[in-house]
Amino acid sequence: MPRPKTMSDEDVLDAALEIMRKQGPDALTFAALSAGCGLSASTLVQRFDSKARLIQAALLQAWDRLDRLTLALAENTPKTPEGAVALLVGLSGDYGGIESYADDLMILREDLRDPALRARGARWRDVLSEAIEARFADAPHAPAGIGLMMAAQWQGALLWWSFDPRMPVQDYVRESLDRFIAAFTESTG
C-alpha cells in the first residue's frame, strides 16, 4: 500500500493522540506515528519539529475539541441547577470502561508538565465554572463560587468512580452531582 502524500495536521494529530491513549505518551515517536498515519517520519519531523511540540499540538487540538463540546453543552442545557448537572454529565463522556479512563489520565500528566497546556486547562476551568454559575443565576441562596465548587465535585466523582466502576460513569456522575445540589439546597432551604 503506498504511503499517502498528504494528510491534514488534524488527522495526524488524531493519530498521535490515539497512540498516546493506547500506549502512553512515551510511546509516541515519529516512527510510531509514521506507522500509524502513513506519512514518513521525516515529513512528520518537518511539520512538528520535536516530540514535545508534537505532543503539545495533539493536546491543544484535544483542548479545542473540549472547548467546542463545552460551548455546545452550555448552549443546549437549561440555565437551572439540573442544567448544570446535564452539562457535566455531557462532559463525562463514555470512556468505554476503566482502562480507557486510566489511559486518559496518563495524558493528563502531559498537560500538567507543559506550561502552555496548563494555561489552556486553567482557561477551560474558568469557562466551565462560568457556565455552571450561569445555571444557578436564578437559584435562591446559591453560594458564591458554586461553579468551581460543582466542577470540583464533578472531577472528584470521576476519580471516585474510577476506583469502583460498577456503573456507567455518566450515571455515577449524575448521582453524585444530584446529591451535591440536594445538600446545598437543603442547607439553604
From TrEMBL:
It holds the Pfam family TetR_N. Residues 29-48 bind DNA. The keyword Transcription regulation applies. It comes from the Bacteria. InterPro entries: Homeodomain-like_sf, HTH-type_TetR-like_transc_reg, HTH_TetR, Tet_transcr_reg_TetR-rel_C_sf. Residues 6-66 form the HTH tetR-type domain. The keyword GTP-binding does not apply. Keywords: DNA-binding, Transcription, Transcription regulation. PANTHER family: HTH-TYPE TRANSCRIPTIONAL REGULATOR BETI (PTHR30055:SF234), HTH-TYPE TRANSCRIPTIONAL REGULATOR RUTR (PTHR30055). This is TetR/AcrR family transcriptional regulator. It comes from Sinorhizobium psoraleae.
